[in-house]
Structure formats: structure tokens, C-alpha cells
Write a structure and sequence with these properties.
Elements: H1 3-28, H2 31-50, H3 56-79, H4 86-91, H5 96-111, H6 125-134, H7 141-149, H8 154-157, H9 169-198, E1 203-207, H10 216-223, E2 227-228, E3 248-251
Antiparallel strand pairs: 1-2, 1-3
């Protein structure tokens, strides 16, 4: 299924997607519990693809559906309402272009044997050591996997940086989980903003974590203090952190 074909089907499938989002919120109720649920769904979906229990086209459709569902659930959670307007439904699909780019990477890794051959080598191990030594921050399994995922394929670039493709099935799972969950955070913030305006609040403040992982953009937004609602973008938008943004927004 191609991206344009999928987007073209959304208007007809809107009622079912909204119903799925409503069920997600009703059953899990909080952002943390919904994120945990999506992590389990991602694990199951990747397992099915890895073990040939689902074809790649169906994998893409289900993953895209889950992305839309979580975004809609985020709006509902933020506004504390199960009503979705046309603007919100349209915005729920705004990350699909990035998701389809990731699909291309998965497909390429499947075709060149990168995912299914444990002996497949495409990087210099000394290069990996240099990358890990230069990394500033805590090194855990997820961080190491992220670094592995972003090592360019020697088959693609001939010495130049090529398309970033998953290095392992664990990498597929962790990155797909972020694609599915990230829209939920932004949508929830947008829903909270609308609820704040409706409730008579007029100012917002974007608070960042004051540590070395904070990007310059988030530091700038934090330093702006209280501003009129709508002045600042939601966490994860217009900042170098993207889906790893840890900012929060408060209102008064």
C-alpha cells in the first residue's frame, strides 16, 4: 500500500479509526498506560512480520492505522472528550510521510539481508567503538541500538552516508514504537491547549529539563517564560529533540 492510497482511504475509514481511539482511551485512560499498550502492540506487529505471519503491505497498513489511532487518542485525552473535529483528524496523519520513509528502510533491510542474517556485516567495528567513546550521555541498550541503526550502509553510500536502515529486528521494534507513540504526545498537548482556551486560560509556558540532553531550541522556549497561548509549538515540534523531546506545557 502506497502513502497516497492510504491517505485517500482515511475519509471513509474515519468512523472506525475514531472508534478505535475511543476504545484505547476508555480502556487505558492515561498517557503512560496507553504508551505501554502501544509498545505491546508494536512488539506483536513486528513479531508477525519477522515470522512471515503477515505480508509487508498489511504490516504498513496496520502500523499506519495505529499511528492515526494514537494521535486521535491524544486529542481525546488532552481535551477530555471523545469528539474529533476535521482539523484534528487531518493533523493525525501528518507524521505518515516520515513513517513511510521508515517503511522504505525496513524493506531495504529485508531485501539486502541485513535483518535476517546474523552474520551480515556492514560497518567497521572500530568505527563503532569510536562512536560509542564520543557519545556524551548514558549508554544503555536502547542507545546502543539507536547508534547501530544510524550507521550508514556501506552498500548504499560507497563511503558516503546512505539511507539509515534498521540494523536489527529490535531496532525495527524500538523505532516503530516511537513512530506510533510520538503523535499521541503532540496531539494531547494540542487538546490540552484547546481545553485551556475554552476554560478561560490565556497564557502558556513550555518547561524543559535542565540537563545536558536539552537542545538549544527547548532552552530558548523555556527562557521565554509565560506567553499567550499559541505562541509556542507543542513539545517535539520545531526543536532538535523531535520525538525525544521531554518538555511539558503548563497554562494559566
Amino acid at each position: 500500500m502506497e502513502l497516497l492510497s492510504y491517505i485517500g482511504s482515511l475519509s471513509m475509514r474515519r468512523p472506525s479509526l475514531v472508534e478505535r481511539a475511543t476504545d484505547l482511551v476508555d480502556e487505558h485512560k492515561t498517557l503512560d498506560k496507553m504508551e505501554a499498550e502501544m509498545a505491546q502492540r508494536t512488539q506483536a506487529l513486528v513479531y508477525r512480520l519477522r515470522n512471515d505471519k503477515i505480508n509487508f503491505s498489511e504490516f504498513k497498513r496496520i502500523a499506519a492505522d495505529e499511528t492515526i489511532t494514537t494521535a486521535l487518542a491524544g486529542y481525546m485525552l488532552g481535551r477530555k472528550s471523545d469528539k474529533i473535529n476535521d482539523t484534528e483528524f487531518a493533523k493525525a496523519s501528518q507524521t505518515l510521510a516520515y513513517l513511510w520513509k521508515f517503511f522504505e528502510g525496513i524493506k531495504q533491510s529485508l531485501e539486502n539481508g541485513r535483518l535476517n542474517n546474523q552474520d551480515y556485516q556492514e560497518y567497521d567495528p572500530y568505527e563503532l567503538v569510536e562512536i560509542l567513546e564520543a557519545y556524551e550521555g548514558d549508554i544503555d541498550d536502547d542507545t546502543i541500538q539507536e547508534i547501530l541503526d544510524n550507521i550508514p550502509s556501506s552498500d548504499l553510500g560507497q563511503g558516503n552516508a546512505g539511507l539509515s536502515t534498521p540494523a536489527s529486528w529490535e531496532g525495527v521494534e524500538s523505532r516503530l514504537s516511537r513512530y506510533l507513540v510520538t503523535p499521541m504526545y503532540g496531539a494531547m498537548t494540542a487538546g490540552e491547549m484547546l481545553a485551556a482556551l475554552t476554560g478561560g486560560q490565556r497564557q502558556m509556558r513550555r518547561l524543559s529539563r535542565h540537563d545536558k540532553r536539552r537542545c538549544d531550541d527547548c532552552a530558548m522556549y523555556d527562557a521565554m517564560g509565560w506567553v499567550p497561548i499559541g505562541t509556542l509549538p507543542p513539545p517535539g515540534q520545531r526543536c532538535a529533540c523531535h520525538d525525544r523531546c521531554r518538555c511539558q506545557v503548563i497554562y494559566q
